[in-house]
Design goal:
Length: 279
């Protein structure tokens, strides 16, 4: 028999998954001490507070009340595996999991559904080279949770906006590409430090790649440098290979000779480290 989690237990689980502190989740809704008591099952919130907390977490009250421990563990493990494959750009293996006929029926959280479409769109872009379908999936994923007036925008939402910009570039919709890429950077810089993802470097790579191909070489250089700094601060190798490779290409444009060799070497070194490291 499956054990139903309490409202407080589910609330705490979702809050931690979204990298929200109690202060961030409770702000404008209830006091932090009240939220603490709710999470510890010492107090039952009224309906209005429950609705507001769920809305900030990006779930409905029905979804929270129906969550079961076994289901949460199973879907959590599955998304951990897919995230690992995504992180390492193993899109063929990721696509095989996404193609499972029962997968979609197991997803009951909007945020998990968002990841599902993010992964689908990425596989279409990098594996199938289908930019139109990639854009459709990425936009569908963003629509699961994102609103223009939303507070506490998530790291995944910012990633999606950036990737949508990258796809628009491939579709030669340059104004839309620039708009989305700039917007993703703006949202990133507004995000609290503790919520920054270990995949944040991709946001800078996407914009730097766009700037480089638009002939905006100095801006591309600054964006790539910042992306590397963000990755190093997060102690993440995600997109470091690509960023160092791009830095080498940019350096070759800015300086005559073979000065970019050091960046190409760094790119290969990171590629080797990633091959023997989980993250």
């Amino acid at each position: 028999m499956q054990t139903i989690l309490s409202f407080g237990e589910v609330l705490k689980c979702l809050r931690k998954e979204r990298k929200l502190t109690q202060k961030m989740l409770s702000q404008g809704i209830c006091s932090q001490s009240v939220l603490s008591r709710i999470e510890n099952d010492e107090e039952l919130p009224n309906v209005l507070v429950m609705q507001q907390l769920c809305q900030r977490l990006g779930v409905t009250m029905d979804q929270v009340m129906n969550m079961q421990s076994v289901e949460i563990q199973q879907i959590h493990r599955l998304f951990e595996e897919m995230t690992y494959l995504f992180f390492h750009k193993e899109y063929e293996d990721l696509a095989q999991i996404l193609a499972h006929p029962n997968l979609l029926s197991q997803i009951y959280l909007d945020t998990d559904l968002q990841l599902y479409y993010y992964f689908l769109g990425s596989c279409q872009f990098f594996l199938e080279k289908n930019t139109e379908l990639a854009l459709q999936y990425l936009q569908q994923g963003l629509s699961c949770t994102f609103k223009l007036d939303k507070s506490n925008v998530s790291a995944i939402e910012i990633q999606l906006i950036s990737c949508i910009g990258r796809v628009y570039q491939e579709l030669e919709e340059m104004d839309l590409a620039r708009e989305n890429l700039q917007y993703s950077l703006k949202l990133f810089h507004e995000m609290p430090v503790q919520r920054i993802s270990n995949m944040a470097a991709k946001i800078f790579y996407n914009h730097a790649y766009f700037s480089y191909h638009q002939g905006e070489i100095q801006e591309a250089w600054e964006l790539a440098k910042e992306g590397i700094a963000v990755a190093q601060k997060q102690k993440s190798y995600y997109y470091l290979t690509d960023l160092f490779q791009l830095m080498g290409m940019i350096h070759d444009q800015l300086v005559e000779g073979e000065g970019g060799a050091q960046y190409y070497q760094a790119s290969e070194a990171v590629k080797f480290i990633r091959s023997i490291s989980r993250y």
